[in-house]
Amino acid sequence: MKRVIWWIRRDLRISDNPRLSTAISMGDEVIPIFILDPILMNSDYTSEKRKAFLLSGLRILDSELRKNDSYLIIREGNAFEELSKLTYEYQVSSILAEPDYSTYSINRDKEVASKLPVYWIGSPSILPPGSVLKSDGTPYTVFTPFSKAWKSLTSNIPIKNSSSNLPIFTPLHIPSLSIPTSSSSTLFKPGEDEAQHRLSKFTQIETDTLRNSLPAIFKYNSGRNQLDVEGTSQLSPYLRFGMLSARQALFASEFAIQNANNQDAQMNAESWLNELIWRDFYIHILHHFPHVRRQNFRKINIKWEYNSQIFEYWANGETGYPIIDASMRQLIETGWMHNRARMIVASFLTKDLLIDWRWGEKWFMQHLIDGDPAANNGGWQWIAGTGTDAAPFFRIFNPIHQAQKFDPKGNFVRKWLPELQLVPNEYIHEPWKMPSEIQRKSKCVIGKDYPAPIIDHYWARQRTLQVFHEQNLKNFNLSE
């Protein structure tokens, strides 16, 4: 009897899963295992909502496996030790797993692979790190040429979804821990079926004759930036844990591009594909340049502020800037934040408050359901002006203008800041400008019901420009 372990990490799905399909072809019996690593589960970078989403996803995966003559085996502890026990006790011939690229994962996997028969298959990205390189064999550090090379390589990927419809025979006598419960609730329903439903809804035209609107992918360029509408796919938590494979997202985007009924719709669908390429890009960067998790990608030395009180105002949504505060409170309550909002609040922290991007990166990881080391780090360093393809140092988001443009009627702000519910539209993004009488009528007295701005944006902008200009301008190649 040949037994193979399917070591599940970031691939909580049955369809389009190369590890599972290979395990089925290699072994008479497949042992699906997920190891609850205390170091990861209790890390300072762990979000309780992300943990709850993961645990719920594991329960759903177990349910799906039981429909296929299998079940999910849960172990807790050090990965090497737990896999060693299983390999020895059940005479396992092979362990199949998907590579991961955080520093901790790489060190863990080196230990496991040095003594156990592990085979690394696939990648959480569409193209695995190391497959998209310059002609001289070095990695790309600028997105546009990376994107061109990436597209030339993915053009050879057949557009089809592989699924594992065969029984997944698993010995019934292997002991397993129960999947822990979590008190946290999440905005997102976990599981592969929900991921597929969301992907289909976002990318495909329904055949229902009563439908009178296009899927959001064909309006993505405008919808993705509006905070007061649902114009994004909201698939990031599912990609984060592999409840949806990145390949499936690629196939869906290609299908939409090919079936767009006009050039504008096609361009919108291509914009969403571009987001998938950015995701791959940051995974590749983390693999090739692991120092980015703790250091600036660019060799620059910014004199950051380390004011914990000011940081707390930002973190808790008490800055006095409604768009910042609404976004931060959305994050705290739901574990998710619109991508445009992420850029606005990150710019405010790093460019207005001049606080080290690492503080913000960690706060996001402590709260985001979709918190991913590669994408989160890449986004923060882009905004801070320290990373690959970094936003120029002089790009500083104006929180008032951003709010006026992407939440014009203040619907998003009012949803998350009930204290501003009665504030008139003309003051909703600058409530400190309300005359005293209107403040009283709106039941929003500045300094009492809602804070005054903790900093003047225009002064802060000049300070940041001066800091970057004096210390780091020579390190920026603006021609890039």
Q: Level of helix content?
A: 40-55%
Strand order of the largest sheet: 3-2-1-4-5
Please, what is the CATH homologous superfamily of the largest domain?
A: DNA Cyclobutane Dipyrimidine Photolyase, subunit A, domain 3
What class would the helix/strand composition place it in?
Answer: mainly alpha
Approximate shape? globular
Q: What share of the residues does DSSP label as strand, in percent?
A: 5-15%
- Rg over CA atoms, rounded to whole Å, is 24 Å
Average pLDDT, rounded to a whole number, is 92
A few lines on this structure:
This protein has 480 residues and is mainly alpha-helical. It has three domains: 3-122, Rossmann fold; 193-288, Serine Threonine Protein Phosphatase 5, Tetratricopeptide repeat (Alpha Horseshoe), CATH 1.25.40; 308-474, DNA Cyclobutane Dipyrimidine Photolyase, subunit A, domain 3 (Orthogonal Bundle). The protein has helices at 18-26, 38-41, 48-66, 79-89, 103-115, 143-154, 192-203, 220-223, 236-240, 246-259, 263-288, 308-315, 322-334, 339-352, 357-365, 373-384, 399-406, 411-416, 436-441, 457-472; strands spanning 3-8, 29-36, 73-76, 92-97, 118-120.
